[in-house]
Amino acid sequence: MNSHSIQARSTIAAAGLLLVALVVGGVALDLAVRYRIQNEVFFAAEQVAARWSAAARNGAVPRPIPTLTDITLVQLVDARGRVVDSSREAAGMRPLSTLRPPADDRLQERTECSGQDRCVMLMANRVSPAADSPVVYAGTAQPSLLATHTLEYVIAAGGVLILVPVAWMTWWAVGRTLRPVERERQFASTTSHELRTPIAGLRARLEEALLYPDDVDPRDTIQGALRATGRLEAIVDDLLLLTRMRGADAAPPELVELGALVTEEVSALGSGVPVRVRAVGDVRVRGSRIQLARVVGNLLSNARRHAVSAVTVSVDSVDGQALVAVTDDGAGVPPADRERVFERFVRLDEARRRDSGGSGLGLAISRDIARAHKGTLRIEDSPVGARFVLMLPLAGTAGAAGEGTVAPRKTAVKPRRNIWPARRPPGRSMSATASGDAWE
């Protein structure tokens, strides 16, 4: 079951439960409103009918019968069904009802509807227990909320206005909750695929050596196995680093002078494409020295792998940000791939051709480290080649990495195989070469 299926099922379940609750609540509200309106109308009609019934017993009913409330239809009807007296609004009308309450239940309510769908809510009050007693009818036209389905439409519209936003918020919340899970699932799937490839190659070489011992050179088999093992080791090491960066306790940050750090990384490189360093001033940031060295090392290795003749590294500060730019004179990275190269296990065709043993995690790890230091790592436009730009908050600024923002502990990260040499003064240009990872 994928995340979209879970998201859809969760949204449907939540919307279904809410719909049931809204239907029950809407019906209850509709009945309550109708009952209240009916009760108020009949109560008012009862008061008017009782008043003029008492007046009729005393022979003091005026002509016409005055109305001072919303109960405007008042009639005094004799035992033969003739209208003896009425209010102005009921003048000329047929008797409002044929109901004659019995002597033992002289006050009754009734809703009378004509053929034209005109309904009147009224109270019938028998004036006296006598057989020929007249009846007083007092009522009013049925309110529109009771005569039509307007109330139901209003309640239904309100339910929709509640249901739709809640369903959308449920979809959004479940999707947001499942998004990291889906990323982890994709990562696990991609990792399994990347690990399966060198394992399958290693197994094939070993099986071939066992099945055809006379036709297979043991030295070639061992060398191939070592290459596959080296790729496996690189992938596992980078996966462990990613896990430690996310799950380990934070280490107290330290002040790191980026010019000196870059100089040390360049001096640790082996032979190959020369690297020129231009460091301006004293550029200090706060963070993990080992992690920042890993970022610089990855960028240098990538740049030298793709450079034609030279790599340039500049260290500067701009608007409260430390800037480290690594530029090579190679083919560069196409604009469409400038974000994709930072994804895990993404290796462009040129990278695979130049370095088949890379893990494909170097740039992903570098960007994670930059973000952990409240900085950015991106590829910018360059007249020639690729230009990777690392920006970090300068030490002492509001955005600088503080306590608990850098992970993992320095002791938790496997140290690089190169040990830092003695520092060289920042700003000195130097040339050095070494092998490194491809775009990864």
TrEMBL record:
Does the record carry Cell cycle as a key word? Answer: no
Q: Which Gene3D superfamilies match?
A: 1.10.287.130, Histidine kinase-like ATPase, C-terminal domain
Highest taxon above the source species = Bacteria
Q: CDD domains, per this entry?
A: HATPase, HisKA
The protein's Enzyme Commission number: 2.7.13.3
Q: Where does it reside? A: Cell membrane
The protein's predominant localisation is membrane
Name the enzyme group at the top EC level: transferase
Domain annotation Histidine kinase: ranges? 190-396
Q: Which catalytic reaction applies to this protein?
A: ATP + protein L-histidine = ADP + protein N-phospho-L-histidine
Q: Which GO terms describe its molecular function?
A: phosphorelay sensor kinase activity
PANTHER family in the cross-refs? SENSOR HISTIDINE KINASE TRCS, SENSOR HISTIDINE KINASE YKOH
Q: What is this protein called?
A: histidine kinase
The species is Microbispora catharanthi
Q: Output the lineage of the source organism.
A: Bacteria, Bacillati, Actinomycetota, Actinomycetes, Streptosporangiales
